[in-house]
UniProtKB/TrEMBL annotation:
Main location: cytoplasm
Described function: Catalyzes the attachment of proline to tRNA(Pro) in a two-step reaction: proline is first activated by ATP to form Pro-AMP and then transferred to the acceptor end of tRNA(Pro). As ProRS can inadvertently accommodate and process non-cognate amino acids such as alanine and cysteine, to avoid such errors it has two additional distinct editing activities against alanine. One activity is designated as 'pretransfer' editing and involves the tRNA(Pro)-independent hydrolysis of activated Ala-AMP.
Protein name: Proline--tRNA ligase
Protein's organism: Propionigenium maris DSM 9537
Cellular localization per UniProt: Cytoplasm
Length: 572
């Protein structure tokens, strides 16, 4: 491809709407163009990168034994009502009506569609297991589309689904897909981690997320410095650090604490550690309308995903000040002792049950109790792990390991769905004894377009994108420094032809621009290698530059193809 013919309109300035690096650089390097909020056109350079990721995904899914199909974007409401997700998905679902007034959606995912296909076509254990996948555009009406391809309303995704006769068979396919995903991200040249995760709205009994590591990542990953344990913050566990509490329980005592409502302030006021306090936070589930007082040790934070899972609730919200007043509760002074709970359900993090002589709200303005004790003074209706794991605490899986933290961008997710969808939609089979059984399912997704953006978040510098070789739109940019110099242009043309003939994606920058202008565009776009035909052209030599390392070398023209091929195997 000649640069003069390439559809590229690079920008010197960053558009105001762009915040994260991938969004900035994809706009500036002419990879994407905004059509509407959260909706982008993939321009030729961006589309080439997208297709390279897509091809790697397709090759590894085929290698894993999954078969590709292509399901409709337009889905009827009826199958979503069968599973209950027509209402549960809420406003993120893109809904529409046809001319006859029938409800449809633009698919955010395809569990219902694939289950409908399988339940009508497979009836015997002899046809199981079955694994099918597609690579297709998805639609979600994000409240705040942002960060370019990281969180859009329209995006490209690979979703796969497997159907099994037994849980053991599902377990084997889950591991098969985990291995396939690891190969995909390795081949894309990305640093990543596989972590334990919450299944969320998809449901199921087990899930793993694949995070591309980047400081700009929205998700916090907790991992062990010794063993392979890793989980996102929503799921992560840790061995709590238990302070040296007093051994003997003292009588509870009410103290005046005027204008001291925050945990840090009450600890300072009493001259104690925050780990000796208990905070109470009020929640209500907007569906069940149950009200909960959740108790957490003062130095820990409540993990709302763990809390929802423990309570089996889906729409927990903190009570407003008005709601607190309606329950005769005082913000900043609530506690589990000396209180008429009524219909309030008391929930305690498990660390609270181990505390001795802790401080808690006095349930009236400007007061706190000291020397409150779980078991003696109060007991919770529900106890469980509802706290965020903390960096530096011990690993829950090994002896001696300490937890560390990293930022990540979720690019893949694998689920053990179990029978959530097959039960509700009647996907059954006859076993070897002629008995009807419900299939068990797995679900495996990769954000293809998000992986492209995540690759840029992980690989960039002040000059632009640094593409991993495997997914770079073009691998080599051949640059004649002076288009008026016949020797330089002739040598550049020769090398361009040889690289192209060798199957290496190459661009010939034939524009009548200054060398510095061309170099800046090359770095912004992120070509892994530049071949510069300059002053050494008369001697039959060029300069080869490596974008990632900044390394530069003089190379004889006839050796350029071999050098580039060698670099492609060595440079990520």
């Amino acid at each position: 491809m000649r640069f003069s013919k390439l559809y590229v309109k690079t920008l010197k300035e960053t558009p105001k709407e762009a915040v994260v690096e991938s969004h900035k650089l994809m706009l500036r390097s002419s990879m994407i163009k905004k059509l509407a909020s959260g909706v982008y056109t993939y321009l030729p350079l961006g589309y080439r990168a997208l297709k390279k990721v897509e091809n790697i995904v397709r090759e590894e899914m085929d290698r894993a034994g999954s078969q590709e199909l292509f399901m409709p974007v337009l889905q009827p409401a009826e199958i979503w009502k069968e599973t209950g997700r027509w209402d549960a998905m809420g406003p993120e679902m893109m809904r529409l009506m046809d001319r006859h007034g029938r409800d449809f959606i633009l698919g955010p995912t395809h569990e219902e569609v694939i289950t409908d296909i399988i339940r009508n076509d497979i009836s015997s254990y002899k046809s199981l297991p079955m694994s099918l996948y597609q690579i297709q555009t998805k639609f979600r009406d994000e409240r705040r589309p942002r960060f370019g391809l990281m969180r859009g309303r329209e995006f490209l995704m690979k979703d796969a689904y497997s159907f099994h006769a037994t849980d053991e068979c599902l377990d084997a396919e889950f591991e098969n897909m985990r291995d396939a995903y690891s190969r995909i991200f390795e081949r894309c040249g990305l640093k990543f981690r596989s972590v334990e995760a919450d299944s969320g709205a998809i449901g199921g009994s087990g899930s793993q997320e694949f995070h591309v590591l980047a400081e700009s990542g929205e998700d916090e990953i907790i991992y062990c410095d010794t063993c392979g344990y890793a989980a996102n913050l929503e799921k992560a566990e840790s061995v709590a650090m238990i302070p040296e509490y007093e051994k003997e329980m003292k009588p509870a005592e009410l103290l005046d604490t005027p204008n001291v409502s925050k945990i840090e302030d009450i600890a300072a006021h009493l001259g104690i550690e925050t780990s000796q306090t208990v905070k109470a936070i009020m929640y209500m589930d907007t569906v069940s309308e149950k009200v909960y007082m959740v108790l957490q040790r003062g130095d820990y934070e409540i993990n709302e995903v763990k809390l929802k899972n423990l309570l089996n609730e889906t729409e927990l919200v903190m009570l407003s000040d008005a709601d607190l007043e309606a329950h005769n509760l005082k913000k900043g002074y609530m506690g589990p002792y000396d209180i008429e709970l009524g219909d309030i359900i008391l929930v305690a993090d498990e660390t609270v049950t181990k505390m001795v002589n802790h401080t808690a709200g006095g349930n009236r303005m400007d007061t706190h109790y000291i020397n409150v004790n779980y078991g003696r003074d109060y007991e919770a209706h529900i106890v469980g792990d509802v706290r965020n794991a903390v960096v530096g605490e011990e690993c829950p899986r090994c002896s001696g390991g300490k937890l560390e933290s990293a930022r990540g961008i979720e690019a893949g997710h694998v689920f053990k769905l179990g029978k959530k969808y097959s039960d509700s939609m009647g996907a059954t089979f006859l076993d070897e004894n002629g008995k009807s059984n419900t299939m068990t399912m797995g679900c495996y997704g990769i954000g293809v377009s998000r992986t492209v953006a995540a690759a840029i978040e992980q690989n960039n510098d002040e000059n632009g994108i640094i593409w991993p070789v495997a997914i770079a739109p073009y691998i080599v940019d051949v640059i004649p420094a002076n288009m008026k110099n016949a020797d330089q242009v002739s040598l550049a043309e020769k090398i361009y032809g040889e690289l192209s003939a060798a199957g290496i994606d190459t661009v010939m920058d034939d524009r009548n621009e200054r060398p510095g202008f061309k170099f800046k565009d090359a770095d912004l776009i992120g070509f892994p290698f530049k071949v510069v035909s300059g002053k050494l052209a008369a001697e039959g030599k060029v300069e080869v530059k490596v974008r990632r390392t900044g390394e530069s070398m003089e190379v004889e023209a006839e050796k350029v193809v071999g050098v580039i091929k060698d670099l492609m195997t060595k440079v990520r």
